[in-house]
Amino acid sequence: MKNFWRRFSYNRGAVIGLFILTLVILTAILAPFVFPQSPWKMVQRPFLPPFTDNALLLGTDALGRNVISGLAHGAYVSLLVGLVSTIVALAIGVPIGALAGYFAGRTDDALMRFTEFFQTIPSFALAIVLLAIFQPSLMFVIIAISIVSWPPVARLVRGEVLSLRTREFVEAATLSGLGNTQIIMRHILPNALPPIIVLASLMVAQAILLESSLSFLGLGDPNIMSWGYMIGAARTVIRTAWWLSFLPGMAILLTVLSLNLIGEGLNDALNPRLTRKTQ
Amino acid sequence: MTLLSIRDLAIALPVGADRIYAAQNINFDLAAGEILCIVGESGSGKSMSANAVMGLLPEGVKPVKGNITFDGREILGLSEAEMLPLRGGRISMIFQEPLSALNPLMRVGAQIAEVFEAHGALSKSERRDRALKLLEEVGIPDPQAAIRAYPFQLSGGQRQRVMIAMALALEPDILIADEPTTALDVTTQAQILKLIEDLRKSRGMAVIFITHDFGVVADIADRVIVMQKGEIVETGTADEVLLKPQHAYTRALIDAIPRLVQRVDTEADQGKPLLTVENLEKTFSTGAGSLFGKRRVVKAVQNVSFELFAGETIGIVGESGSGKSTVGRCIVRLLDPDAGRVLMDGVDISHLAGAELRDQRRKLQMIFQDPYSSLNPRARVSRILTEGLIAFGTSKDAAHAKACELLEMVGLDASAMKRFPHEFSGGQRQRIGIARALALDPSIIIADEAVSALDVSIQAQVLDLLAELKTRLNLSMLFITHDLRVAARICDRIIVMQKGKIVEAGPVSKVLHDPDSAYTRSLLDAIPGQEYERALALAEAEV
Amino acid sequence: MARTDLNTRTGADSVIRFILGRLVKAVFILLAILVFNFLLIHAAPGDPAAVMAGEAGAADEKFLADLRTRFGLDQPLYVQLFIYIKGAVQFDLGYSFRQQMSVAEMIGDRLPATLLLTGVAFVLSLVLGVAAGVAASARQGRWGDTIISTFALLFYATPLFWVALMATLVFSVWLGWLPGFGYSTIGANYTGMAHVLDVAKHLVLPASTLGLFFMAIYMRMTRASMLEVSRLDFVKTARAKGLKRGVIQRRHILRNALLPVITLAGLQAGQIFGGAILTETVFAWPGIGRLMFEAINQRDYNVILGVFYISAAMVLLFNLITDVVYVIVDPRIRLTT
């Protein structure tokens, strides 16, 4: 553990990422307390520029809603969607990949054809189709994102399991009389964990990007204030009030960037073999 | 005439490594046309000084002191640009793993022609002609075809010949060979050694040959340097070092080499066989499954039958691709045989499944080759040793007590229980692997190349341990190995396999000293250092 | 394992066999998507006929009744599936009630614009991404590397639609350098070279915003791959031959390092189309992505499903191209499969 932190913090970017992410998480947690009012409520005249009213630090949007409150509440939505859909995607992808890699042969063929199908079809278009046909609620947004983001997990896990399966310690475990479940859970998956963790951190970032894109197109939950929705709503007024698009975009950029940086740090920390030797 | 001279060379490892210098106080001379062998175990720093000569040390490793004089000119500390004409031009190099040492995406001919291009020699068409000549000279069977082949289409020995052709292209003064035969089969090794020897004679080229194998040293060296932990412990002519070693470490290394010497066969008490293998068959097919792919079929095991009696050790010997490991894996059912029977106490286990297989397999345990991949890096030794017992219903406490006993039996302290595999050396890990195999009280142990990855001194210790445990626990053993010397040391009977079939089987003395098949004979002839062994035996007899 | 059949095969027939295999696979995937679309229509809340008709058409009883008989909506499910697939195979992707046009025709009109946009973005991102990756790896740990890597990291984290908006704002609204929307200047009626130039001008912003994100991906992959390959044994062999650094970089490292990048590019083909939906929406680029956006707003399901189907076909085409490139670069696949 100590080693882990030493290697992680050796990557300066990762530390910065962790710092930014902590800020975003705090914002998300504190949003309902600092801005108890609904972010949808009109509080002032529309198009109030930032830094003109101390009570409304970042001004108001086209409908006179408080921008900073919207950003704070949006943080909650982004993190929630990113986290939950990643967990769901892992719950789909890890078992599929593990079964395919461990049992190989026909099981592998069948499962990988299935995965390949989902990986070949344009994932964003699939998410759009799903949300256009079903009701765009927060739950469906999460489901749609999970459905399009599990294939890389399955592929990664399969690859890892496939190579671990032929390792001698797994053969030894078979000879020791351990069952398949025990072998997968105790010998194979723990060794496949580091790359899965790294991938998961990048998936949270991708899910946040995906959620914002869907909301931007008007396919988000219409009752929930999100960063993508804010940009979509401000798109038509970009000539007159560019900051309304700019600010939520920066929020997405920083959050996604922080997660990517953390992913790199985790990669350095968990795969010391590949750690940069210079510096 | 001294071609190369190294004085007081010290090569530093990166900060944080387990020692400061990869090699230090290195002094030696190389005369034109001589073969100098640098011998040592892994981590001795034996290839460092040779790499320093080329200016090709690994990242972070730097020469910090000393001189390297080549042809009267100081070359240590030359700039990259100044080194270029020397590399491949006057000094060239070949490596251990010929497959990874060749660019997989380039044709062999282009890779050879590139040497001329790098040094601005010859015209384009001349380069090709010369490449062809070189391939002929190094004895590639069909040079016209080989020149257009990609490395993956050649065998291991052919690839190493290509590497040598490349190294010879510009008729260098020195060839540095870094363990060039370690990855090859023994017969191929003999051919490559002969090739290097011949080329040295015909071209008057000096060779620095780095190896861990004293047999190889004995066969080709003019002079020998022995290294240990980054320092030279002994230097001398081949005869001096090999027959009258002065340093204790050299003596220990030489003593550890398993010998082919004549030994008396111990008749095992033939009763009922413990394990009977009948007509075992296994075929692998690749490229199958897809609609348009071509199927390639390899008959890995064909019609293999033998019996193993209680207390007996059978060696299954063969080169890579002989199917020897497949036999072992089919017996323990890590692979499913296509046909044949495996009788264990009269029960055919080749078709068992589920709980029945599990219970029968308990009596058959395996020791693996690679001490690094055979232990789960994320499991403590306690778990590695106890989980089999627990899976078979032993209580946790009893399993723990038994595990401690096992550790002691294999010569490790009980405190090892709490540690992870990476905290142990290769030899210690192999001991843990042996303890694990013994945990379920098996009657048969299958050792698959169990000592091949170990240094020779560790190898001797592990072989001794296995022999001792075998007698003490009355085990039977199937010892799968490519190394006839190792087989000679530990086995009662030997089975020789080639291309999936048994070509010869019999008592160890018969197979090793009076074989019936030509193939066994060729394997025996290829073992390096046999003359030396006889000389050594003679010298020992005199003392 | 001595292999003696060294030169018996040229590899040409293997390549054809390989491509045929891929084509068969592609057909199966397209069929699977049709089944998937069909299931979606039936899984959607409400009457399948109403789903097919879209929100506008659902009000028209006669149109609904017509749909029911045409797709046999009162017959068993498998008959309906058969009718649906049969239609789609003949490029009958349904009818858009709102646009009073067949979906296939609408897509046909818009597809060239999308192919132009995605094609240019794909090539641009791959070429520049690989170049930047090579440059960064050659300067590993130094300033050049840091700058390139930081840019890649930033673009990798930026929402595409936002980059598009900001690009319009800066280069079109503020600086006025480039047109910020559309495919060509409305009412100008340029012909010949002037038209090409006009389209090219309109293409700059959409193609570069779409390309930037993917450029970042390819750059990161190329850099990592170059560094990994440079540690392999054959690079040491190349150095031992006395080859110059530049030659080693190009001939030995780059070629091998490109393999995973090509694989990645194939996998990313679907993503490029996803990006095109966003880019076309922001830049009012008249492609099928924009068509999809319009259909979402109008709940025109036939159009949405049709675009989805055609985009999958497009992605399969991109995949096929990358597969062929891979086979050309890597002899091991060409000569063993």
Structure keywords:
heterotrimer; A: 279 residues; mainly alpha; MetI-like fold; 11 helices; 73% helix; elongated; disordered C terminus; B: 543 residues; alpha/beta; Rossmann fold; 4 domains; six-stranded mixed β-sheet; 20 helices; 20 strands; 24% strand; globular; MetI-like_sf (chain A); transport (chain A); transmembrane (chain A); Peptide/nickel transport system permease protein (chain A)
Q: Rough shape of chain C?
A: globular
Strand content of chain A: under 5%
Largest sheet of chain A: none
CATH architecture of one domain in chain C: Orthogonal Bundle
Q: Judging by the overall fold, what is the CATH architecture of chain A?
A: Orthogonal Bundle
CATH-defined fold name of chain A: MetI-like fold
Helix content of chain C: over 70%
At the first level of CATH, the class of chain A is Mainly Alpha
What is the ordering of alpha helices and beta strands of chain A?
A: HHHHHHHHHHH
Oligomer: heterotrimer
**Tally of helical runs of chain A:** 11
Q: Return the average pLDDT of chain C rounded to an integer.
A: 85
Structural class of chain A: mainly alpha
Radius of gyration of chain C, in angstroms, nearest whole number = 24 Å
CATH classification, class level of one domain in chain C: Mainly Alpha
